[in-house]
Amino acid sequence: MVSLGVGRRVINSLFKFQDQDGRILVLRPEMTISTCRAIAPTLKGNKDLPKRIFYIANAFRYISSGVYQDREFWQVGAELLGVPAIQGELEVISVLHDMLTSVGLKNFQIWIGHIEIFKTFCKELDITDPQIMDQLKEVLWRRDENALSLLLRKYGYSDRIDDFRDFMKLRGNTEKLVDVLKQSRIVSDNMRKYIKLLFNLLKGLKENYSINANYDLSLIRDLEYYTGFIFEVYVRGLGYFIASGGRYDNLMRAFCDFDIPAIGFAINIDHCENILRSQAQITAKNPKKIVVHLREKNLLPDAKKLVNKLRIKYQVIFLPRDVSKNDVDTYYRGKEDFVVYELKNKGDISRIMEDLS
Amino acid sequence: MIEKILFGIPSKGRLKEDTIKMLRDAGFEIKEQKRKYLAESNSSWLKFIFLRAADIPVFVKYGALDMGITGHDFVVERGNDITELLDLKYGRADLCLGVSETSNYKSIEDLPNNIRVGTEFPRITTSYFDTLGINAEVIELRGSVEITIALKLTDAIVDLVSTGKTFRENGLVVIDKIMETTARLIVNPITFRTKEPFIEKIRENIAEVIK
Q: Using CB atoms and an 8 Å cut-off, which of residues 167-206 of chain B contact chain A?
């Protein structure tokens, strides 16, 4: 059940076991399928929709030994059931963007593709064998021109190499997508329909949420159960993605009697933490521990917000109001490891942020 | 640090020498210091890391390195999910199935089931024997693979042959060629998206040299 629609790449990375009856058990490689299975029995029909679910959970995939990623990783994710494209996409991608921004992540880029553009393109070039399409997805995602040529030659499609090479180049920002719609020789009317959807999504994100996302028509690998938009989040300079997601309108059918349009994402918490640490190291001028001493009780909510913000970059010791000034002076003030800030009024908060920026 | 390109190059042998020379011709000078894995270059945005050629695809795959140069054989063996940008044409060799010259196995048709095969390329070897429909016990080794037949550890080996000298000196003959390999310029596909201008510059410079 867990391998349902996750695709060859994920199936190859499953941890498998056998129980006493000879059945194969696996450690879950991701959370969406488990979430759908758990939620399906609770849904009686459309009146229960839309449904918004989030999870924080661990998942497991095989990764070669000797590299610095763990085989067990933690994900925080969200699923939105019952909202069709592109309304669902706008909500989910903006939530994802807010989450990453609120933990202090910088320089991240959201890239969006649409699986139907690729499928239509293949169909029009008379390539319908799912096995060949799977391999094409892999090489297109990798943007590996040599492998693409070899693959198409192997299956007797040498005359289509140039078309796929051009397809591989279709990526960029919203403005560039307008040119693709107008000009590209490989874009048919059927493809244009989906490209317009992609354009509307990028435009919607920009106009309603000030999110500048990019498109990439080769962003089509990963989980098999995706039926529409697929998105991945990269951080400038890092070779792995920190969040990914997409639309999966047919998956719920496996668990209940009716189709439910659905979309979701997952953030890899471990990757996110690593990146935050490295970004903080790069930007922090002062690696000292920061002591925030609350002196005015009405400022408690603001103080908590401030401390949460500072903790992304620094080690912070928060001292409540009942710690005496004397103790603070004795234990922290003037010591090499600590910088002490007092919070007496709202102005102190901006002063601290300014001081540390 | 984040805006730099980390580039892995082989830490020893012919592949290292050819790579350093090719990079110099492409305008990238490596400031190598003895016993240091990390080397600066004449470009402020480019750093080189010396690593075992076999490990470079793994580092690139998981994003610890942005790009690198290694053999196509190692990319196939250890680096699915990475992109080969250029065939650099040097470091040419064949990955071959070899047996003792006194062996009864004269061709692949003679190979029995449960044959024991020593190799540094277990993935390629397993897949090769699967294609032949022969059940093979693949023994993963690190170097000195040629001697394992004489020591009765293996019945056959899968190893790289460039001049054929090592095979001849160890009394081995090639009975099948599995794949050809050359050095390749490889890149992590996500870095390829997020640092594209730097990577394109490196690709263009190198492409000029190997033309």
A: 188-195
What share of chain B has pLDDT > 70, as a percent? 98
Q: ipTM score of the complex?
A: 0.78
Beta-sheet pairing, A214-216 with B46-51? unpaired
CATH at B190: 3.40.190.10
Which site among A112, A214, A238 would you substitute to test the B interface, given the most B Cβ atoms closer than 10 Å to its Cβ? A238
Annotate B55-119 with DSSP letters as a single string.
THHHHHHTTSSSEEEEEHHHHHHH-TT-EEEEE---S-EEEEEEEETTSS--SGGGPPTTEEEEE
Cβ contact, residue pair B62, A63, below 8 Å: yes
Strands B30-31 and B67-71: unpaired
Structural domain of residue B175, as residue ranges?
Answer: 93-179
Whether the per-residue pLDDT at B10 is higher than 70: the answer is yes
**Single pTM value for the model:** 0.77
What whole-number distance in Å separates Cα of residue A204 and Cα of residue A82?
20
Contact A142 B82 (CB under 8 A): yes
Q: Cα–Cα distances in Å, from B136 out to B77, B100, B106?
A: 17, 17, 17
The more confidently predicted of residues A322 and A69 is A322
Provide the 10 A C-beta neighbour count for residue A158: 11
Structure tokens at B145: 């693979």
Q: Are A250 and A239 in contact (CB under 8 A)?
A: no
Give the residue from A2, A7, A64 showing the smallest Cα distance to A30.
A2
How many domains in chain B?
2
Same structural domain, B86 and B35: yes
CB-nearest to A234 from B4, B78, B193 is B193
